[in-house]
Amino acid sequence: xxxxxxxxxxxxxxxxxxxxxxxxxxxxxxxxxxxxxxxxxxxxxxxxxxxxxxxxxxxxxxxxxxxxxxxxxxxxxxxxxxxxxxxxxxxxxxxxxxxxxxxxxxxxxxxxxxxxxxxxxxxxxxxxxxxxxxxxxxxxxxxxxxxxxxxxxxxxxxxxxxxxxxxxxxxxxxxxxxxxxxxxxxxxxxxxxxxxxxxxxxxxxxxxxxxxxxxxxxxxxxxxxxxxxxxxxxxxxxxxxxxxxxxxxxxxxxxxxxxxxxxxxxxxxxxxxxxxxxxxxxxxxxxxxxxxxxxxxxxxxxxxxxxxxxxxxxxxxxxxxxxxxxxxxxxxxxxxxxxxxxxxxxxxxxxxxxxxxxxxxxxxxxxxxxxxxxxxxxxxxxxxxxxxxxxxxxxxxxxxxxxxxxxxxxxxxxxxxxxxxxxxxxxxxxxxxxxxxxxx
Length: 440
Ligand code: GDP
Ligand code: IMO
Ligand code: MG
Hints:
By secondary structure, the chain is an alpha/beta fold. The chain has two domains: 3-100 and 207-436, Adenylosuccinate Synthetase, subunit A, domain 3 (Adenylosuccinate Synthetase, Chain A, domain 3); 104-203, Adenylosuccinate Synthetase, subunit A, domain 2, CATH 1.10.300. The protein is built from 14 helices and 20 strands. A ten-stranded mixed beta sheet has the order 9-7-5-2-10-1-11-15-19-20, with helices on both faces. Strands 14, 16, 17 and 18 form a four-stranded mixed beta sheet that branches. The chain starts with a strand and ends with a helix.
Protein backbone atom coordinates (compact mmCIF):
# COMPACT_ATOMS: atom_id res chain seq x y z
CA UNK A 1 0.00 0.00 0.00
CA UNK A 2 2.70 2.44 -1.02
CA UNK A 3 0.46 5.20 -2.28
CA UNK A 4 1.11 8.72 -1.02
CA UNK A 5 -1.30 11.55 -1.66
CA UNK A 6 0.18 15.06 -1.77
CA UNK A 7 -2.51 17.69 -1.42
CA UNK A 8 -2.45 21.47 -1.31
CA UNK A 9 -3.51 22.41 2.22
CA UNK A 10 -4.32 26.07 1.53
CA UNK A 11 -5.41 28.07 -1.55
CA UNK A 12 -2.90 26.52 -3.95
CA UNK A 13 0.72 27.36 -4.73
CA UNK A 14 1.93 25.84 -1.47
CA UNK A 15 4.98 24.31 -3.16
CA UNK A 16 3.41 20.98 -4.17
CA UNK A 17 5.62 20.85 -7.28
CA UNK A 18 8.78 21.03 -5.24
CA UNK A 19 7.57 18.40 -2.77
CA UNK A 20 6.37 16.01 -5.47
CA UNK A 21 9.62 16.42 -7.37
CA UNK A 22 11.64 15.58 -4.29
CA UNK A 23 9.58 12.49 -3.45
CA UNK A 24 9.43 11.41 -7.09
CA UNK A 25 12.97 10.07 -6.75
CA UNK A 26 11.57 7.29 -4.61
CA UNK A 27 8.52 6.32 -6.67
CA UNK A 28 7.65 4.53 -9.88
CA UNK A 29 4.42 6.36 -10.72
CA UNK A 30 3.23 9.98 -10.35
CA UNK A 31 -0.39 10.71 -11.26
CA UNK A 32 -2.39 13.92 -11.66
CA UNK A 33 -6.08 13.33 -10.97
CA UNK A 34 -7.86 16.72 -11.22
CA UNK A 35 -7.55 20.31 -12.37
CA UNK A 36 -5.92 21.30 -15.61
CA UNK A 37 -3.56 23.91 -16.92
CA UNK A 38 -4.77 26.26 -14.18
CA UNK A 39 -2.05 24.61 -12.10
CA UNK A 40 1.52 25.86 -12.12
CA UNK A 41 3.91 23.58 -10.26
CA UNK A 42 7.45 24.93 -10.00
CA UNK A 43 10.58 22.85 -9.59
CA UNK A 44 14.05 24.29 -9.27
CA UNK A 45 16.73 21.72 -10.00
CA UNK A 46 20.42 22.40 -10.56
CA UNK A 47 19.66 26.10 -10.92
CA UNK A 48 17.09 25.44 -13.67
CA UNK A 49 13.42 26.26 -13.21
CA UNK A 50 10.62 24.13 -14.65
CA UNK A 51 6.93 25.01 -14.40
CA UNK A 52 4.57 22.10 -14.97
CA UNK A 53 0.94 22.84 -15.74
CA UNK A 54 -0.64 19.61 -16.97
CA UNK A 55 2.11 17.05 -16.95
CA UNK A 56 2.84 15.39 -13.61
CA UNK A 57 5.93 16.79 -11.94
CA UNK A 58 7.46 13.30 -11.94
CA UNK A 59 8.31 13.81 -15.63
CA UNK A 60 11.59 15.43 -14.57
CA UNK A 61 12.74 11.98 -13.40
CA UNK A 62 13.22 9.64 -16.37
CA UNK A 63 12.43 6.50 -14.35
CA UNK A 64 8.96 7.75 -13.35
CA UNK A 65 5.81 6.71 -15.18
CA UNK A 66 3.52 9.76 -15.36
CA UNK A 67 -0.24 9.46 -15.58
CA UNK A 68 -2.77 12.14 -16.44
CA UNK A 69 -5.96 10.56 -15.10
CA UNK A 70 -9.55 10.90 -16.25
CA UNK A 71 -10.39 13.47 -13.58
CA UNK A 72 -8.08 16.04 -15.18
CA UNK A 73 -9.38 18.43 -17.84
CA UNK A 74 -6.72 18.49 -20.53
CA UNK A 75 -6.24 21.36 -22.92
CA UNK A 76 -4.72 19.33 -25.76
CA UNK A 77 -3.03 22.33 -27.34
CA UNK A 78 -1.47 23.36 -24.03
CA UNK A 79 -0.40 19.76 -23.48
CA UNK A 80 1.33 19.52 -26.84
CA UNK A 81 3.08 22.83 -26.06
CA UNK A 82 4.18 21.60 -22.66
CA UNK A 83 5.58 18.38 -24.13
CA UNK A 84 7.49 20.45 -26.68
CA UNK A 85 8.87 22.83 -24.08
CA UNK A 86 10.01 20.04 -21.81
CA UNK A 87 11.77 18.31 -24.69
CA UNK A 88 13.49 21.57 -25.58
CA UNK A 89 14.65 21.75 -21.96
CA UNK A 90 16.26 18.33 -22.34
CA UNK A 91 13.51 16.36 -20.57
CA UNK A 92 12.53 13.03 -22.05
CA UNK A 93 8.80 12.78 -22.82
CA UNK A 94 7.80 9.55 -24.52
CA UNK A 95 6.28 6.37 -23.18
CA UNK A 96 6.81 7.79 -19.68
CA UNK A 97 3.72 10.01 -20.13
CA UNK A 98 0.24 8.56 -20.49
CA UNK A 99 -3.17 10.24 -20.72
CA UNK A 100 -6.43 8.55 -19.85
CA UNK A 101 -8.86 7.80 -22.66
CA UNK A 102 -11.71 9.01 -20.47
CA UNK A 103 -10.06 12.37 -19.80
CA UNK A 104 -12.14 15.38 -20.82
CA UNK A 105 -10.63 18.03 -23.05
CA UNK A 106 -10.69 21.78 -22.78
CA UNK A 107 -11.71 23.21 -26.12
CA UNK A 108 -11.08 26.77 -27.30
CA UNK A 109 -14.74 27.64 -26.65
CA UNK A 110 -14.34 26.75 -22.95
CA UNK A 111 -11.87 29.60 -22.60
CA UNK A 112 -14.27 31.99 -24.35
CA UNK A 113 -17.00 30.97 -21.91
CA UNK A 114 -14.61 31.31 -18.96
CA UNK A 115 -13.70 34.90 -19.81
CA UNK A 116 -17.25 36.02 -20.64
CA UNK A 117 -18.65 34.39 -17.52
CA UNK A 118 -16.15 36.37 -15.48
CA UNK A 119 -17.10 39.53 -17.31
CA UNK A 120 -20.79 38.92 -16.67
CA UNK A 121 -20.14 38.25 -13.00
CA UNK A 122 -18.52 41.68 -12.70
CA UNK A 123 -17.75 42.42 -9.05
CA UNK A 124 -18.75 38.87 -8.19
CA UNK A 125 -16.15 37.36 -10.52
CA UNK A 126 -14.07 34.44 -9.26
CA UNK A 127 -10.76 35.63 -10.65
CA UNK A 128 -10.20 32.42 -12.58
CA UNK A 129 -7.01 31.59 -14.43
CA UNK A 130 -8.96 31.90 -17.70
CA UNK A 131 -7.92 28.40 -18.72
CA UNK A 132 -11.48 27.19 -19.37
CA UNK A 133 -11.57 24.98 -16.28
CA UNK A 134 -15.08 25.78 -15.00
CA UNK A 135 -16.79 25.51 -18.40
CA UNK A 136 -14.99 22.23 -19.20
CA UNK A 137 -16.05 20.62 -15.91
CA UNK A 138 -19.57 22.04 -16.41
CA UNK A 139 -19.73 20.34 -19.81
CA UNK A 140 -18.47 17.12 -18.28
CA UNK A 141 -21.25 17.19 -15.68
CA UNK A 142 -23.82 18.23 -18.30
CA UNK A 143 -22.66 15.30 -20.47
CA UNK A 144 -21.59 17.64 -23.21
CA UNK A 145 -17.86 17.07 -22.86
CA UNK A 146 -15.41 15.92 -25.50
CA UNK A 147 -13.07 13.22 -24.24
CA UNK A 148 -9.61 12.18 -25.37
CA UNK A 149 -11.00 8.91 -26.76
CA UNK A 150 -13.36 10.91 -28.99
CA UNK A 151 -10.35 12.21 -30.90
CA UNK A 152 -9.96 8.74 -32.38
CA UNK A 153 -13.51 8.30 -33.68
CA UNK A 154 -14.02 11.08 -36.18
CA UNK A 155 -17.75 10.59 -36.49
CA UNK A 156 -18.33 10.67 -32.75
CA UNK A 157 -16.03 13.68 -32.49
CA UNK A 158 -17.85 15.65 -35.20
CA UNK A 159 -21.25 14.84 -33.68
CA UNK A 160 -20.24 15.80 -30.17
CA UNK A 161 -18.55 19.02 -31.26
CA UNK A 162 -21.62 19.99 -33.30
CA UNK A 163 -24.04 19.42 -30.43
CA UNK A 164 -21.85 21.11 -27.85
CA UNK A 165 -21.26 24.13 -30.09
CA UNK A 166 -24.94 24.57 -30.89
CA UNK A 167 -25.60 24.99 -27.18
CA UNK A 168 -22.60 27.28 -26.64
CA UNK A 169 -23.78 29.55 -29.45
CA UNK A 170 -27.16 29.90 -27.76
CA UNK A 171 -25.48 30.69 -24.46
CA UNK A 172 -23.30 33.35 -26.01
CA UNK A 173 -25.98 34.85 -28.24
CA UNK A 174 -26.10 38.61 -27.79
CA UNK A 175 -22.58 38.81 -26.41
CA UNK A 176 -20.13 40.64 -28.58
CA UNK A 177 -17.21 38.42 -29.51
CA UNK A 178 -13.93 39.28 -31.17
CA UNK A 179 -12.71 37.44 -34.24
CA UNK A 180 -10.72 34.83 -32.36
CA UNK A 181 -13.65 34.12 -30.06
CA UNK A 182 -16.01 33.72 -33.00
CA UNK A 183 -13.57 31.25 -34.54
CA UNK A 184 -13.58 29.24 -31.31
CA UNK A 185 -17.31 28.64 -31.93
CA UNK A 186 -16.82 27.27 -35.44
CA UNK A 187 -17.10 23.55 -35.88
CA UNK A 188 -14.43 23.41 -38.60
CA UNK A 189 -11.95 25.25 -36.47
CA UNK A 190 -12.47 22.95 -33.48
CA UNK A 191 -12.08 19.89 -35.69
CA UNK A 192 -8.89 21.42 -37.11
CA UNK A 193 -7.50 21.85 -33.61
CA UNK A 194 -8.34 18.21 -32.94
CA UNK A 195 -6.62 17.18 -36.17
CA UNK A 196 -3.48 19.01 -35.10
CA UNK A 197 -3.12 17.19 -31.79
CA UNK A 198 -4.51 13.73 -32.66
CA UNK A 199 -1.34 12.07 -33.93
CA UNK A 200 0.98 13.82 -31.47
CA UNK A 201 -1.03 12.60 -28.50
CA UNK A 202 -1.87 9.13 -29.86
CA UNK A 203 1.23 7.36 -28.48
CA UNK A 204 0.35 8.61 -24.97
CA UNK A 205 -3.33 7.66 -24.85
CA UNK A 206 -4.08 4.64 -22.64
CA UNK A 207 -6.48 3.05 -20.20
CA UNK A 208 -4.95 4.78 -17.21
CA UNK A 209 -7.41 3.23 -14.76
CA UNK A 210 -5.96 -0.18 -15.64
CA UNK A 211 -2.43 1.17 -15.22
CA UNK A 212 -3.18 2.51 -11.75
CA UNK A 213 -4.67 -0.83 -10.73
CA UNK A 214 -1.63 -2.64 -12.09
CA UNK A 215 0.73 -0.35 -10.15
CA UNK A 216 -1.21 -0.83 -6.94
CA UNK A 217 -1.58 -4.58 -7.36
CA UNK A 218 2.17 -4.86 -7.82
CA UNK A 219 2.83 -2.76 -4.77
CA UNK A 220 4.66 -0.05 -6.69
CA UNK A 221 5.19 3.28 -5.01
CA UNK A 222 2.67 5.74 -6.40
CA UNK A 223 2.48 9.45 -5.75
CA UNK A 224 -0.81 11.28 -6.26
CA UNK A 225 -0.06 14.89 -7.22
CA UNK A 226 -2.85 17.21 -6.19
CA UNK A 227 -3.36 20.51 -7.95
CA UNK A 228 -4.82 23.68 -6.40
CA UNK A 229 -5.59 23.33 -2.69
CA UNK A 230 -8.35 22.12 -0.41
CA UNK A 231 -9.59 25.68 0.25
CA UNK A 232 -10.25 25.86 -3.51
CA UNK A 233 -12.05 22.50 -3.48
CA UNK A 234 -15.47 22.57 -5.14
CA UNK A 235 -17.15 21.10 -2.05
CA UNK A 236 -14.89 21.92 0.89
CA UNK A 237 -13.46 25.26 -0.23
CA UNK A 238 -14.61 28.84 0.00
CA UNK A 239 -17.47 28.40 -2.48
CA UNK A 240 -18.15 30.06 -4.88
CA UNK A 241 -14.54 31.29 -4.91
CA UNK A 242 -13.15 27.87 -5.72
CA UNK A 243 -12.02 25.83 -8.67
CA UNK A 244 -14.31 23.28 -10.29
CA UNK A 245 -12.74 20.03 -9.11
CA UNK A 246 -12.24 17.99 -5.96
CA UNK A 247 -8.69 18.68 -4.95
CA UNK A 248 -8.48 16.19 -2.09
CA UNK A 249 -8.01 12.47 -1.96
CA UNK A 250 -11.65 11.88 -2.97
CA UNK A 251 -10.78 13.52 -6.27
CA UNK A 252 -7.87 11.11 -6.61
CA UNK A 253 -10.07 8.07 -6.10
CA UNK A 254 -12.68 9.14 -8.63
CA UNK A 255 -10.22 10.86 -10.97
CA UNK A 256 -7.99 7.84 -11.33
CA UNK A 257 -10.45 5.02 -10.78
CA UNK A 258 -8.53 3.96 -7.67
CA UNK A 259 -9.79 1.14 -5.51
CA UNK A 260 -10.78 2.19 -2.01
CA UNK A 261 -8.38 1.84 0.90
CA UNK A 262 -5.15 1.86 -1.06
CA UNK A 263 -3.85 5.29 -0.08
CA UNK A 264 -1.20 4.76 2.58
CA UNK A 265 -0.87 8.36 3.71
CA UNK A 266 -2.03 11.86 2.91
CA UNK A 267 0.23 14.86 3.36
CA UNK A 268 -1.07 18.42 3.19
CA UNK A 269 1.44 20.94 1.92
CA UNK A 270 1.17 24.33 3.62
CA UNK A 271 3.26 27.45 3.44
CA UNK A 272 4.52 28.88 6.72
CA UNK A 273 2.15 31.75 5.86
CA UNK A 274 -0.79 32.00 3.43
CA UNK A 275 -1.39 33.18 -0.10
CA UNK A 276 -4.35 33.30 -2.42
CA UNK A 277 -4.73 34.29 -6.09
CA UNK A 278 -8.02 35.57 -7.43
CA UNK A 279 -11.08 36.70 -5.51
CA UNK A 280 -12.61 35.34 -2.34
CA UNK A 281 -12.38 35.62 1.44
CA UNK A 282 -8.97 35.51 3.10
CA UNK A 283 -9.29 36.52 6.77
CA UNK A 284 -5.57 36.72 7.60
CA UNK A 285 -4.70 38.71 4.48
CA UNK A 286 -2.16 41.49 4.96
CA UNK A 287 -2.67 44.69 3.06
CA UNK A 288 -0.03 47.33 2.51
CA UNK A 289 3.66 47.01 3.34
CA UNK A 290 3.48 43.81 5.39
CA UNK A 291 1.76 41.92 2.59
CA UNK A 292 4.13 43.40 0.05
CA UNK A 293 7.09 42.23 2.10
CA UNK A 294 5.87 38.60 2.03
CA UNK A 295 5.04 38.93 -1.67
CA UNK A 296 8.52 40.10 -2.56
CA UNK A 297 10.30 37.82 -0.09
CA UNK A 298 8.40 34.77 -1.27
CA UNK A 299 8.33 35.68 -4.96
CA UNK A 300 4.56 35.44 -4.72
CA UNK A 301 3.53 35.91 -8.32
CA UNK A 302 1.37 33.30 -10.07
CA UNK A 303 3.25 30.52 -11.88
CA UNK A 304 0.41 30.31 -14.44
CA UNK A 305 -0.91 33.84 -14.84
CA UNK A 306 1.87 35.97 -13.31
CA UNK A 307 -0.72 37.70 -11.10
CA UNK A 308 0.54 39.00 -7.75
CA UNK A 309 -0.60 36.63 -5.01
CA UNK A 310 -2.43 38.04 -2.01
CA UNK A 311 -0.36 37.31 1.12
CA UNK A 312 -1.17 36.92 4.81
CA UNK A 313 -0.35 35.12 8.05
CA UNK A 314 -0.74 31.38 8.58
CA UNK A 315 -4.39 30.67 9.29
CA UNK A 316 -4.70 27.82 11.78
CA UNK A 317 -8.52 27.83 11.58
CA UNK A 318 -8.38 27.23 7.84
CA UNK A 319 -5.54 24.73 8.36
CA UNK A 320 -7.59 22.68 10.85
CA UNK A 321 -10.46 22.60 8.37
CA UNK A 322 -7.99 21.47 5.68
CA UNK A 323 -6.59 18.73 7.90
CA UNK A 324 -10.08 17.54 8.79
CA UNK A 325 -11.50 17.35 5.29
CA UNK A 326 -8.38 15.95 3.62
CA UNK A 327 -7.75 13.37 6.32
CA UNK A 328 -4.14 14.54 6.27
CA UNK A 329 -1.76 12.39 8.32
CA UNK A 330 0.95 15.03 8.34
CA UNK A 331 1.98 18.44 7.08
CA UNK A 332 4.77 19.52 4.83
CA UNK A 333 5.62 23.13 5.69
CA UNK A 334 7.21 25.17 2.91
CA UNK A 335 8.78 28.60 2.55
CA UNK A 336 9.92 28.86 6.15
CA UNK A 337 12.86 30.94 4.90
CA UNK A 338 10.51 33.68 3.70
CA UNK A 339 9.87 34.58 7.36
CA UNK A 340 13.60 34.81 8.19
CA UNK A 341 13.85 38.60 8.48
CA UNK A 342 10.64 39.37 10.32
CA UNK A 343 10.73 40.87 13.83
CA UNK A 344 7.47 39.21 14.74
CA UNK A 345 5.23 36.61 13.18
CA UNK A 346 1.53 36.01 13.71
CA UNK A 347 -0.67 32.95 13.46
CA UNK A 348 -4.42 33.33 13.14
CA UNK A 349 -5.91 31.07 15.84
CA UNK A 350 -9.54 32.10 15.71
CA UNK A 351 -12.01 34.50 14.16
CA UNK A 352 -14.23 37.11 15.70
CA UNK A 353 -17.60 37.73 14.15
CA UNK A 354 -20.38 39.85 15.63
CA UNK A 355 -18.48 40.04 18.94
CA UNK A 356 -18.28 36.23 19.16
CA UNK A 357 -15.16 34.14 18.87
CA UNK A 358 -15.25 31.10 16.60
CA UNK A 359 -12.65 28.49 15.74
CA UNK A 360 -14.54 26.66 13.00
CA UNK A 361 -14.17 27.54 9.34
CA UNK A 362 -17.50 28.99 8.10
CA UNK A 363 -19.15 27.46 5.05
CA UNK A 364 -20.45 30.84 3.91
CA UNK A 365 -18.06 33.06 1.98
CA UNK A 366 -20.09 36.07 3.10
CA UNK A 367 -19.49 35.20 6.77
CA UNK A 368 -15.83 34.36 6.22
CA UNK A 369 -15.41 37.75 4.59
CA UNK A 370 -16.57 39.45 7.78
CA UNK A 371 -14.39 37.38 10.11
CA UNK A 372 -11.77 39.35 11.99
CA UNK A 373 -8.68 37.26 12.68
CA UNK A 374 -7.54 36.64 16.26
CA UNK A 375 -3.77 36.26 16.40
CA UNK A 376 -1.13 34.66 18.55
CA UNK A 377 2.15 36.57 18.24
CA UNK A 378 5.62 35.11 18.09
CA UNK A 379 9.06 36.63 17.99
CA UNK A 380 10.86 36.19 14.69
CA UNK A 381 14.13 34.24 14.61
CA UNK A 382 15.96 36.82 12.47
CA UNK A 383 18.51 34.28 11.35
CA UNK A 384 18.72 32.59 7.99
CA UNK A 385 16.93 29.28 7.60
CA UNK A 386 17.29 29.53 3.82
CA UNK A 387 18.96 26.39 2.56
CA UNK A 388 19.02 24.63 5.96
CA UNK A 389 18.82 20.86 5.42
CA UNK A 390 18.99 19.50 8.98
CA UNK A 391 16.35 20.10 11.59
CA UNK A 392 19.03 20.56 14.25
CA UNK A 393 20.46 23.50 12.32
CA UNK A 394 17.28 25.55 12.53
CA UNK A 395 17.20 28.53 14.91
CA UNK A 396 15.42 27.72 18.19
CA UNK A 397 12.63 30.22 17.49
CA UNK A 398 12.02 28.73 14.04
CA UNK A 399 11.67 25.29 15.65
CA UNK A 400 9.26 26.78 18.15
CA UNK A 401 7.22 28.34 15.33
CA UNK A 402 7.01 24.97 13.59
CA UNK A 403 5.97 23.26 16.80
CA UNK A 404 3.14 25.80 17.15
CA UNK A 405 1.96 24.90 13.63
CA UNK A 406 2.01 21.25 14.66
CA UNK A 407 0.23 21.97 17.95
CA UNK A 408 -2.49 24.09 16.36
CA UNK A 409 -3.23 21.64 13.54
CA UNK A 410 -2.73 18.53 15.64
CA UNK A 411 -0.52 16.98 12.97
CA UNK A 412 3.16 16.10 12.76
CA UNK A 413 5.37 17.89 10.27
CA UNK A 414 7.15 15.36 8.09
CA UNK A 415 9.07 17.75 5.85
CA UNK A 416 10.16 21.39 5.93
CA UNK A 417 11.17 23.35 2.87
CA UNK A 418 13.73 26.12 3.25
CA UNK A 419 14.23 27.25 -0.33
CA UNK A 420 13.02 26.71 -3.90
CA UNK A 421 15.79 24.28 -4.77
CA UNK A 422 15.06 20.57 -4.60
CA UNK A 423 17.82 20.09 -2.08
CA UNK A 424 16.74 22.84 0.32
CA UNK A 425 14.59 20.53 2.36
CA UNK A 426 14.56 19.03 5.83
CA UNK A 427 13.18 15.52 5.97
CA UNK A 428 11.88 14.90 9.46
CA UNK A 429 10.16 11.64 8.45
CA UNK A 430 10.26 9.97 5.08
CA UNK A 431 6.59 9.57 4.10
CA UNK A 432 7.17 6.26 2.32
CA UNK A 433 9.09 4.85 5.28
CA UNK A 434 6.21 5.87 7.52
CA UNK A 435 3.70 4.17 5.20
CA UNK A 436 5.77 1.04 4.82
CA UNK A 437 6.46 0.74 8.52
CA UNK A 438 2.70 0.73 8.91
CA UNK A 439 2.50 3.91 10.93
CA UNK A 440 0.67 6.01 8.32
P1 GDP B 1 2.55 24.71 -6.34
O1 GDP B 1 1.53 25.19 -7.30
O2 GDP B 1 1.98 24.25 -5.05
O3 GDP B 1 3.49 23.69 -6.93
O4 GDP B 1 3.46 25.98 -5.99
P2 GDP B 1 4.03 27.06 -7.03
O5 GDP B 1 5.12 26.45 -7.82
O6 GDP B 1 2.93 27.70 -7.78
O7 GDP B 1 4.55 28.17 -6.04
C1 GDP B 1 5.54 27.90 -5.09
C2 GDP B 1 6.71 28.85 -5.35
O8 GDP B 1 7.56 28.87 -4.19
C3 GDP B 1 7.61 28.42 -6.49
O9 GDP B 1 8.16 29.55 -7.09
C4 GDP B 1 8.70 27.60 -5.80
O10 GDP B 1 9.92 27.59 -6.52
C5 GDP B 1 8.85 28.37 -4.52
N1 GDP B 1 9.23 27.57 -3.35
C6 GDP B 1 8.84 26.30 -3.01
N2 GDP B 1 9.33 25.98 -1.79
C7 GDP B 1 10.01 27.05 -1.34
C8 GDP B 1 10.71 27.36 -0.13
O11 GDP B 1 10.77 26.56 0.80
N3 GDP B 1 11.26 28.59 -0.03
C9 GDP B 1 11.19 29.52 -1.02
N4 GDP B 1 11.76 30.69 -0.83
N5 GDP B 1 10.54 29.27 -2.17
C10 GDP B 1 9.95 28.06 -2.33
P1 IMO C 1 -1.70 25.17 -8.26
O1 IMO C 1 -1.89 23.73 -8.64
C1 IMO C 1 -3.54 28.89 -6.96
C2 IMO C 1 -7.57 29.72 -8.41
C3 IMO C 1 -7.78 30.88 -9.36
C4 IMO C 1 -9.18 31.31 -8.97
C5 IMO C 1 -9.87 29.97 -8.68
C6 IMO C 1 -10.68 29.45 -9.86
O2 IMO C 1 -0.57 25.83 -8.96
O3 IMO C 1 -1.67 25.33 -6.79
P2 IMO C 1 -9.98 28.32 -12.16
O4 IMO C 1 -9.12 28.81 -13.28
O5 IMO C 1 -9.50 27.06 -11.54
O6 IMO C 1 -11.43 28.23 -12.53
O7 IMO C 1 -9.89 29.47 -11.03
O8 IMO C 1 -8.83 29.06 -8.37
N1 IMO C 1 -6.57 28.73 -8.84
C7 IMO C 1 -5.37 28.59 -8.29
N2 IMO C 1 -4.76 29.31 -7.31
N3 IMO C 1 -2.93 27.80 -7.46
C8 IMO C 1 -3.53 27.05 -8.40
O9 IMO C 1 -3.02 25.90 -8.85
C9 IMO C 1 -4.79 27.46 -8.89
N4 IMO C 1 -5.64 26.98 -9.82
C10 IMO C 1 -6.73 27.75 -9.77
O10 IMO C 1 -6.83 31.90 -9.13
O11 IMO C 1 -9.14 32.01 -7.76
MG1 MG D 1 1.10 26.88 -8.43
